[in-house]
Structure formats: C-alpha cells, structure tokens
C-alpha cells in the first residue's frame, strides 16, 4: 500500500480523489487540510489527515508519503500564491522527500496562457507550475481537463496531447483519471488534455501510453 497525499482534499475534485483512493487496495489517501476544523470530516470516514497551508511551510506534510495528487486551487482568489507558488513549494518538498510520483491537476489552455481571453492569470499560474514540475526531475503526470462540471461521471473520455478540441468533463471522471495515473506503469513524464468522450478511461490512457 502506498500513501498518497491529496493536496486540495477539501475541494470538490479533491474529495472525489480521496474517496476513490479510500476504496483502492493499492493506495491510502492522506488528506491535506488547511484548518483544524476540516479534520473531522475525514476522521469520521477513517481517513488520515495532515495540516498544511500552501502559503506557509509544508515540508512536514510529506512524511511517509509515496505519491502526491495536486488538486488544489484558490478559486481565482490567490492564483500566484496558491496555484503557482504553492504548487512549486509542494514540488520542491516532493523532490526533497524523493516522492515516487507527482500527479498534477492543471487546466486546458495552460499550454498557451497568452492566447486566453479569460482566466488569463489563472492559466499563467498553472502554466508556470506545470513547467516547474517538468524540470523537477520528479516522475510526473500533468492532466489538463476542459471545463469542469458536477455532472455524473460516464467513465468515458476523449484524450490527446494536445487534444485540439474544447469541451467539458465531469469532476468524477477527472478524479478517475487522476487516480489511475498514480500507478507506476501509467503515463509518466507526460502531459495530456481530456474532455468527455466515448472511450473508456482505462482504454484511453492505454492508447496514449502505446502511441
């Protein structure tokens, strides 16, 4: 069993990742929370937590951690402090702790933020964090979904690097992709885009691995 730190565990997508990992025979989720008041929600489900604030020192959060899922976001309020610098801080700490894999939840459009007509600051922050991860020498996977929805997951996606297609995708399906890329034999040193589609998630990931 590998311990997986879920950064952004109190967010909508992060919670789904935690729940998926909880039912996995291979991974143990460790939910990173910012406030003590958030611990109870997870402890009631018998899920371990660690206190950590991305705007402060977070080096202690990676004790006995094997892999990281970074699904944190400031909701547009502190894109530089959290989405960019917070991610960099976690990447540095992961490198120092010899983390085996870092799975980054990014965003479609982060490859060319200068072309954005909206959310430009957010996409720039995600772009900078992604590029920092690519040069970190950590084993990584960067996932760039289209617009996130709260629709029920279909278990099917469209995938590409790049996809050259806009679209949306449910948070449930994104959480499935995030957890599946934690496996050692899943896509590594790779960055791809996803939206809702007609191909089963596992098959779509395999097709990208073999392409």
UniProtKB/TrEMBL annotation:
Pfam families in alphabetical order: NAD_binding_10
SMART domains: Semialdhyde_dh
CDD domains per record: SDR_a5 (cd05243)
Xref: InterPro entries: NAD(P)-bd_dom, NAD(P)-bd_dom_sf, Semialdehyde_DH_NAD-bd
Highest taxon listed in the record's lineage: Bacteria
Domain Semialdehyde dehydrogenase NAD-binding: 3-116
PANTHER family with a match to the protein in the record: FLAVIN REDUCTASE-RELATED, UPF0659 PROTEIN YMR090W
Descriptive protein name: SDR family oxidoreductase
Organism: Arenibacter antarcticus
Higher taxonomy: Bacteria, Pseudomonadati, Bacteroidota, Flavobacteriia, Flavobacteriales
């Amino acid at each position: 069993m590998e311990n997986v730190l879920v950064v952004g565990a109190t967010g909508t997508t992060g919670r789904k990742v935690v729940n998926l990992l909880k039912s996995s025979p291979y991974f143990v989720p460790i939910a990173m929370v910012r406030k003590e008041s958030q611990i109870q929600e997870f402890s009631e489900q018998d899920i371990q937590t660690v206190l950590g604030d991305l705007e402060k020192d977070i080096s202690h959060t990676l004790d006995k951690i094997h892999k990281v899922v970074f699904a944190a976001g400031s909701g547009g309020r502190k894109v530089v402090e959290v989405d960019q610098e917070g991610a960099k801080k976690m990447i540095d700490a992961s490198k120092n702790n010899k983390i085996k894999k870092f799975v980054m939840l990014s965003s479609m459009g982060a490859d060319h933020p200068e072309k954005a007509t909206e959310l430009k600051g957010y996409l720039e922050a995600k772009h900078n964090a992604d590029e920092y991860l690519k040069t970190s020498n950590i084993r990584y996977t960067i996932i760039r979904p289209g617009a996130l929805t709260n629709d029920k997951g279909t278990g099917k996606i469209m995938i590409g690097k790049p996809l050259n297609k806009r679209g949306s995708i449910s948070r449930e399906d994104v959480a499935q992709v995030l957890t599946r890329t934690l496996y050692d034999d899943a896509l590594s040193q790779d960055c791809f885009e996803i939206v809702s589609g007609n191909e089963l998630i596992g098959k779509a990931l395999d097709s990208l691995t073999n392409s």
